[in-house]
Amino acid sequence: MVFAGMLLLTAALLLVLLLARATEMDMVRFQRLTAMAVLGLIMVAAAMFAAGLLVTAGAVLGLL
Cys-Cys link to 26, which of 13, 22, 31, 53 (CB 3.0-4.6 A)? Predict the structure, then answer.
């Protein structure tokens, strides 16, 4: 889950970088939709990353 969260965060970062290179007309047209999509993707990725860290920490503590 940590790996999947990192992949989603990387995808969100690449999407933000692509949007930064878009033209002004494209940004005006898709600004609200893409902003919501990027925020949702970042939130899901952060949740997956945190859940993966919790599972990993639980497994490590279980081994002790």
Answer: 22
- Torsion on CA atoms 32, 47, 2, 16, rounded to nearest 10: 10
Helix/strand number for the chain, H first, E second: 2, 0
φ and ψ at 22, to 5 degrees? Answer: -70, 160
Predicted model pTM: 0.53
pLDDT digits (tens, 9 = 90+) for 9-25: 777 777 777 776 766 66
Three-class secondary structure of residue 22 per DSSP: coil
Enter the tokens of residue 8: 């989603």
Residue 41 neighbours by CB under 8 Å, 6+ apart: 8, 11, 12, 15
